[in-house]
Fold this sequence. Notes:
It is a single chain. By secondary structure, this protein is mainly alpha-helical. 94% of the residues lie in helices and 0% in strands. It has 2 helices and no strands. It has helices spanning 2-92, 98-187. Helix 1 (2-92) packs antiparallel against helix 2 (98-187). It starts with a helix and ends in a 5-residue tail after the last helix. The model has no long low-confidence stretch (mean pLDDT 92). One of its GO terms (cellular component) is Golgi membrane. This is GOLI4 protein.
Amino acid sequence: GLFLYQHLQQKVRNAEALAQKYKQQQEALSAQLQVVYEHRSRLERSLQKERGEHKKTKEDFLVYKLEAQEALNKEKQDSMNRYGALSSQHKILKNQHDDVKKQLLDLQLQHNSLKLEHRKSLESHSQKLAQLQQEKDSEVTNLQDTVFKLREESKLLRKAHQEVHSQLLSAQAQMEEFRQLKEALQKMPGLR
């Protein structure tokens, strides 16, 4: 009986040491989990900031596009007005001296130069719009990658938390079993 009691006492001590070890592991995992949660929180704040900046960039792009369109329309209207003025002047000066015809030719050349500048301006605006669209697409892709990584990290954290919780429940069940066994041994009159 004494040998059995000592053997059970040793098992109880071993179980308590094991429970203490599991408790320490749980505390360490809880600390790691807290660090991961804080890291995730920082990532979410960073993502929110990126979304705000993306929204502002998009709004700035829309404002720029509207202003560019208005400037383009104004320039086009100015060119049309200039063309009308040149045409009227051409009709008025049609029957005058050769020097006046030469002046009209110079004005037509000026008009062609303005049309060329207008075309170059249009091409430049188109290139800028395409570049902004490409940058926006790249930003959207980066944000999607960040969201995917955060979801994967969240899944891993949930799995680790469930494993720790399961180990803790198992250790508590063993502690309860050893406590009941200890109480039963203490009630036995032979061991007293």
